[in-house]
Amino acid sequence: MNSSVRNGNSCPKESEENGNNETSETRYPDGTVKLRNPHIELMDQDILYHIALGSESHDLVEMFGDVKFVCMGGTPKRMETFAHYIMKEIGYKLPTGTTLMDISQYSYRYSMYKVGPVISVSHGMGVPSIGILLHEMIKLMYHAKAKDPIFFRIGTCGGLGLEPGTVVISDDVVDGLGNHYYSVPILGKVVKRPAKLEKKLVRELKALATQDDPYDTTTGTTMCAEDFYEGQGRIDGAFCDYTEADKQDYLENLVRQGVKNIEMEAVPFAALTHQAGIKAAIVCVTLLNRLKGDQVAAPKEVMNEYQQRPQILVARYIKKYLQTKGRLCSLDGHGSIAVKSPRRFKLVQQESQTFE
């Protein structure tokens, strides 16, 4: 196999704020998303297998054209909870007799809910899972003609020198080797895509943390591991070839490098949104201090409360944005799937159910 390396040099030219989201490479003049894949426009239909949608089976402009925020987190239950929470926070009203619907229920892979201009979707665990979802969510924004969407990852993590329950807003991301890029083997060659987050968005989120919050909110570097156990220096996996002292030395060295937390999705999230010219931020809550142990021991009710904290901060941002734009007063929903072609609609359902 050819092991040569080529750098991803098609990234949008950067501004001082870590990415100009309105470059001609990533946006049309009206602000809608432009894909960096010329093949999509030539396809009869683009089936988004893993979220059970299609460009010709569904009227994606009608369904998602008003989307401004895409919020994603690991589990379906967490993102269903966030959907109900943001619905209350922004005053979104469903028609009488209707409930929030899992739009991607036929995929059996991810769960997705839409609350006015907000999508709440699960991304699963780890680099491959979130990578697949990001490709399809970016394509969804393109097909829907959504204008300048903002992506958020709302998650959990292990803290480094931080008390459990601390909220961490990532201002930089690295992989397990300290690299600031996402390495993807493509056609036998390794492509490196810069993993960057917009600093302005980080500052805006940090400014929304208040002294009344009964927990700390901080910013810092996030390490993205490709494994839960050995990849994060745990000693409680099925295998372990290092000592407790080795682990402590490693974690303390990460702290000296400015790493505040460890999770499993930050690098592809930052790299693919940056490649697409989409503003993005990562907000996680620490479930434990890894300098003091490897296993989460907090009671379930405490864990549930911790997981609400990133949701609260992101909801503050969304609510403030909508208030500034005067959009909180017109949030009545239709709560329906818009079908363009019943035949293609059935095909997409079948493809999504059987695609491996």
Automatic annotation (TrEMBL):
Annotated InterPro entries: Nucleoside_phosphorylase_d, Nucleoside_phosphorylase_sf, Uridine_phosphorylase_euk
Residue stretches of biased makeup (Polar residues): 1-12
Molecular functions per Gene Ontology: uridine phosphorylase activity
GO cellular component terms, A-Z: cytosol
SUPFAM superfamilies noted in UniProt: Purine and uridine phosphorylases
Positions that bind substrate: Q232, R234
UniProt record similarity statement: Belongs to the PNP/UDP phosphorylase family.
Name assigned to this protein: Nucleoside phosphorylase domain-containing protein
Biological source species: Ceutorhynchus assimilis (cabbage seed weevil)
Lineage start: Eukaryota, Metazoa, Ecdysozoa, Arthropoda, Hexapoda
